[in-house]
Design a protein that fits this description.
- The chain has 370 residues and is an alpha/beta fold.
- The protein has helices at residues 2-14, 34-37, 50-53, 58-67, 79-82, 92-103, 134-151, 176-181, 184-196, 212-227, 248-260, 304-323, and strands at 17-18, 29-30, 43-48, 70-73, 107-114, 158-163, 201-206, 234-237, 240-241, 264-272, 328-333.
- The structure holds (3S,4R)-3-hydroxy-2-oxopiperidin-4-yl beta-D-xylopyranoside.
Length: 370
C-alpha cells in the first residue's frame, strides 16, 4: 500500500504544473498562487535584482507580483551600493525596489546593514589602509545606519541588521568589526538601527543556523543582547541548502530551540542546490571552485529521478516550515526563477542549477502543485 502511495506521489510530483488546466492532460495540476497557499502559515518572499527593479525582465516581475508578498533587494541595498563613497548616499536602486514592494503590497526587508562582505573598505580602514580607531568605526557605523534606516523609515518593515557574524563552530567571526570593536559592535548595530526607526523590526541574520553549535551560540547571544536592552525581533536563517544539509532533523531541532527560547524566526534566503556542492556546507560568497563536467550534471536538463528527488527534498523542507509556522513569520526564496539565481555562478561559474520555486521558463516546481 505504502509502495503504491509513493509511486502515485512520484507521478504527481512529475506531473506538469500549469496555469491553464483545461489545455493539458489529466495529470496536469493547476499552479496555486503561493501567497494564498501559505496565507495561514507565513509570508512568502522573493528577491528583486537590478533587471527586475529596472523593469527589464517581465517574466520574473510578473511572478514576483503574482506569488509573493514579501521582498528583499538582492544586492542594491547593500552598503557597497548605498554608501560606496563615505557619506555620498545613493538610494536610487533601493528606492525602486522599495517602491515596487509598496505598490504590490509586500512586506519589505532591508538587506543589509552590518556585514563584512559587499561593504566599502572605508568602514574598516583609513585612507592609508590602517585599521580605524574604535571611536571612528563606531561613528561610521552610526552615520551609515542612521542615514539608511531613516531614509527608509516607514517603508522598510524589517532590517537585516547584522549578517554572518558567527563561525559554524559557534565562535564569533573575526570580521573587521569584531577585530576593532569586539563583541560590542553587535549591540551598537542594533542600538543605532532601533534609534533610527523605532517601529522597524530587527533581524539577526546568518547562514548554517541549523548547525547545533552555531544555533546555540546565536541563541545565547540574542538572549544576552536582549537582556542588555537591545531590540531583536527575529533570528534570520538564510538557509542556502543542499540535498543533504540541513537534514530535516537538524532543521526541526533548531526551529524547536528558537521556539523554546521565545525567538521568532524568519527564513531569509532559502534556496536548494540540486547539483554537487564541492565547497562543503557554506554560504560564504567568496567560496570558489573550478568547473568540472561532473559538477554540472544537469546542464542538459534534469533527469526524471533527479527532478523527483529535488521535489521531494523541497517538499520535506516546506512541510517542516509549515509544521513550525506558528513561530515562522516569513519564508523568502533567494531568486524568483532558477535562471536568475546566484547559484548558477556560485561557487562555480556557469552551471545549471534548480534552486528556486520556479524553473527558468517560469513553471512552478511540481511539489507546490499538490
Ligand atoms: C548574493 C547575491 O545573490 C549575489 O548576486 C551577489 O553576487 C553576492 O551576494 N548571503 C547573503 C546575500 O546575505 O546577500 C548573498 O547574496 C548570498 C549569501
Amino acid at each position: 500500500m505504502k509502495k503504491i502511495f509513493s509511486l502515485l506521489s512520484a507521478a504527481m510530483m512529475l506531473a506538469a504544473c500549469s496555469n491553464n488546466p483545461k489545455q493539458d492532460s489529466k495529470v496536469t495540476v493547476t499552479e496555486p498562487i503561493l501567497k494564498e497557499k501559505f496565507k495561514n502559515n507565513f509570508l512568502i518572499g522573493t528577491v528583486l535584482a537590478a533587471d527586475q527593479a529596472f523593469g527589464r525582465d517581465s517574466l520574473t516581475i510578473n511572478i514576483a507580483k503574482k506569488h509573493f508578498n514579501a521582498l528583499t533587494a538582492e544586492n542594491c541595498m547593500k552598503p557597497e551600493i548605498i554608501d560606496k563613497e563615505k557619506g555620498k548616499y545613493d538610494f536610487s536602486e533601493g528606492d525602486l525596489v522599495v517602491d515596487f514592494a509598496k505598490k504590490n503590497n509586500m512586506y519589505m526587508i532591508g538587506h543589509v546593514l552590518i556585514w563584512h562582505e559587499q561593504s566599502p573598505k572605508w568602514f574598516w580602514v583609513d585612507e592609508q589602509g590602517n585599521p580605524l580607531k574604535p571611536e571612528v568605526m563606531k561613528q561610521n557605523m552610526k552615520e551609515f545606519i542612521t542615514a539608511t534606516v531613516e531614509h527608509y523609515k516607514g517603508k522598510v518593515d524589517a532590517w537585516d541588521v547584522v549578517n554572518e557574524t558567527f563561525n559554524d563552530d559557534g565562535t564569533l567571526r573575526e570580521t573587521p568589526y569584531y577585530k576593532i570593536l569586539g563583541e560590542e559592535y553587535l549591540k551598537l548595530a542594533f542600538q543605532y538601527a532601533h534609534e533610527a526607526d523605532p517601529d522597524a523590526k530587527l533581524i539577526f541574520n546568518d547562514y548554517n543556523v541549523s548547525k547545533p553549535e552555531k544555533c546555540d551560540a546565536i541563541i545565547k547571544k540574542i538572549n544576552e543582547l536582549k537582556s542588555q536592552g537591545c531590540q531583536i525581533d527575529y533570528v534570520g536563517m538564510q538557509m542556502h541548502s543542499t540535498m543533504t544539509f540541513p537534514t530535516i532533523e537538524q532543521l526541526e531541532t533548531s526551529l524547536k530551540k528558537f521556539e523554546d527560547n521565545g525567538i521568532k524566526v524568519q527564513i531569509t534566503e532559502f534556496d536548494l542546490t540540486a547539483i554537487p556542492f564541492p565547497e562543503g556546507n557554506t554560504a560564504d560568497i567568496t567560496a570558489k571552485a573550478d568547473y568540472k563536467d561532473t559538477y554540472d550534471p544537469y546542464r542538459n536538463g534534469l533527469t526524471d529521478s533527479a527532478r523527483n528527488a529535488l521535489n521531494n527534498r523541497f517538499n520535506d523542507i516546506f512541510e517542516c516550515f509549515v509544521r513550525h509556522s506558528a513561530n515562522i513569520e516569513r519564508v523568502t526564496v533567494w531568486g524568483i526563477t532558477d535562471k536568475g539565481s546566484w547559484r548558477q555562478d556560485w561557487p562555480i561559474k556557469g552551471r545549471t542549477d534548480f534552486p528556486t520555486l520556479f524553473y527558468s521558463d517560469g513553471k512552478m516546481k511540481e511539489f507546490l502543485c499538490k
